[in-house]
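pasting for the record
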Amino acid sequence: MKICVLGPAHPYRGGLAAIMETMARVFARRGDDVSIKTFTLQYPSLLFPGKNQTVDTPAPADIRIERCVNTVNPFNWIKIGLHLRRECPDFILLKYWTPFMAPCFGTIARIARGNGHTKVICQIDNVEPHEPHITDRVFNRYFLKAVDGFVYMSDQVRGELRRYTSAPALFSPHPMFENLGERVERSEACRHLGLDAAKRYMLFFGLIRDYKGLDILLDAWKLTDDKELVLLVAGEFYTSREKYMPAVEALGDRVVLYDSFVADEEVKYWFSVADAVVLPYRSATQSGVTQVAYNFGVPMIVTDVGGLAEIVPDGRVGYVVEPSAKAVAAAVERICEGDNLDVFRRNMQEERRRFSWEEMCNRITEVYNSVATQRM
């Protein structure tokens, strides 16, 4: 097949770019003709809460990536749509995670599929965003109505999707990240991060947004009795840093804060140090952090929101609890008891078989096949 992947890719940083590049590689390994069209501008600097959007590493040599999409320029959307209409791929594969992308992606999709051949398939993270805006429903409707079929990663997303469209949709859980390397020896990871190997560590990882509940976890830490257990917080603030700092400072050396984006090549050190990963989210659909934890075999504590419990079976690879400081604190203490961590690590080796990029791409192909014969 001829496939155009449209979305984040090098030089843009983070998990979304890794996902699009990985799916492109899987299709290319199957013999498909695959190219990626990514952004010349992803977010205007005024709308981007982080420090930078791109990396300085060389572009991957094994995939074709063209920077050509400007998310805020309607004339560019028309140009790209017309180009894709003429290029006539069998399908355009889009990633959708925020309504901000809806005007750009929706316009490109509508124009491109006007050739009567090209289909638009979306691998969708979220429908309703975690941090809502007044334009969300209008933008969602505009984009989602332009898509022929979907692959979703949680039942919550499927339910939200059905409010907008009846297009074919299949479930595939979030795969593990293949680009982050392997575990390293704990002692080596401690040396690399400047941590005391005599301590025990739990990890809060990823971009810090209010819905992710870092304040819940900090309050939970105050309730735990193990003074040798240290909380690692590794991620860039996408919200006010100041409102979290009093709790961080009150906990003293029981918290280590690394408030910067963690580059792909550094991720393995944080997960090789951690006994467990904690996701105290207030809301969620799914989380890429759980799949990083599976990749490195690190047990998890997650809250019972969105699709997290679908990915983290309670009592098998960790614990699922309510999003409260008391419940999280109890789980932190419980996971350290006896041989719980060892049992969970062994179970993760079996559970991780569910999370395959091959299966994700199989579902995408299945959705495409189901819509390929439909009239435009």
